[in-house]
Design brief:
The chain has nine helices and ten strands. It is α+β, with helices and mostly antiparallel strands.
Length: about 325
């Protein structure tokens, strides 16, 4: 994991004229429910394609090098069904994590008219993002790759070409879990295949030549071991974040601001979609839909005197500090 340094201050506005409304356009009309979300990022698209290629390579080696040439039909059928089911669920989870809106905040709502409609009182502030001209609800962060503020943003993952936020964290957790399981399953089958081939003639163990078979198995073993370690760590950190109701960004920033947290089991149920059931493991079932923040949720009390001081800054000072906006990013390496 890599933390991109960023200044810890936010742009805090109380007076409408500080928002420079001429640079904010009205919020775009929301698309129909279920509109596909896709980030046009070259690195993320390449990483997503590589992910699919590696899974399909594992499919090829498992089926055509180990299972189909095997004389034990029961072993081949059972392991083939289990591996293909896990691979299908992993790729389905990957697609859902990549194509689901992670919780983007509406763009362009930091306008003078909208701020005036909030009727802010003394001691009340709103947080705004000068990069996407949005008013941030609590726990929202700006992603420089998605170019949007994301509610409850955990991190941006190039392997799914998307941010991990409140709407798609379930799919990301399932993706890491299923990849870890197929990696472990592949490693076990490679071990049994090597033992079997050492006991018999190598020419009868595979449809390919012995050198080709060994190279394919070694590459699969290296891939499986690498992905098992990586996805297991990611799965563990995501489960920990869900249970503690603290995102990776919040943990890295170590804010000491008081915040009401959901209970660990309640947070798990909200993320995976209701009470414990098989739907928790289903990438086609949706998590509990969080309530969209209303106008009142955008207004907060100043956390400190420094926050109040920020509301009294001139437009020139705000312009100079525009690049120091609070946008800590976490990127998987």
């Amino acid at each position: 994991m890599m933390l991109i340094p960023a200044h810890h201050f936010r742009d805090i506005e109380r007076k409408p004229e500080y928002l420079q409304p001429e640079k904010c356009v009205p919020p775009p009309h929301s698309g129909p429910v279920g509109t596909m979300w896709f980030i046009r990022d070259g690195c993320g698209i390449a990483c997503a394609i590589v992910t699919w290629i590696l899974v399909l390579y594992a499919e090829f080696v498992v089926l055509f090098v180990m299972l189909i040439p095997s004389r034990d039909y029961a072993y081949s059928i059972i392991n083939g069904l289990v591996f293909n089911l896990l691979a299908f669920l992993a790729l389905a989870s990957h697609c859902r994590a990549m194509l689901t809106d992670p919780g983007a905040v509406p763009k362009g709502n930091a306008t003078k008219e909208f701020i005036e409609s909030l009727q802010l009182k003394p001691g009340q502030v709103v947080y705004k993002c000068p990069k996407c001209c949005s008013i941030k609800p609590d726990r929202a962060h700006h992603c420089s790759v998605c170019k949007r503020c994301i509610r409850k943003m955990d991190h941006h993952c190039p392997w799914v070409n998307n941010c991990v936020g409140e709407n798609n964290q379930k799919y990301f957790v399932l993706f890491t879990m299923y990849i870890a399981l197929i990696s472990l399953h592949a490693l076990i089958m490679v071990g049994f295949h090597f033992l079997h081939c050492f006991e018999e003639d190598w020419t009868k163990c595979s449809s390919f030549s012995p050198p080709t078979t060994v190279i394919l198995l070694i590459l699969l073993c290296f891939e499986g071991l690498l992905f098992l370690i990586f996805t297991s760590v990611m799965f563990g950190t995501q489960v920990h974040s869900i249970c503690t109701d603290e995102t990776t960004i919040e943990r890295l920033k170590r804010k000491n601001q008081p915040r009401q947290r959901a209970g660990s089991w309640k947070a798990v149920e909200d993320t995976f979609g209701g009470s414990l059931s098989l739907n928790w493991l289903n990438p086609f079932s949706r998590p509990c839909q969080p309530e969209v923040p209303g106008d009142k949720d955008l207004v907060r009390r100043a956390a400190s005197l420094s926050d109040i001081d920020n509301t009294e800054r001139t437009e020139e000072q705000l312009e100079e500090e525009k690049e120091e906006e609070d946008s800590v990013e976490v990127i998987d390496e």
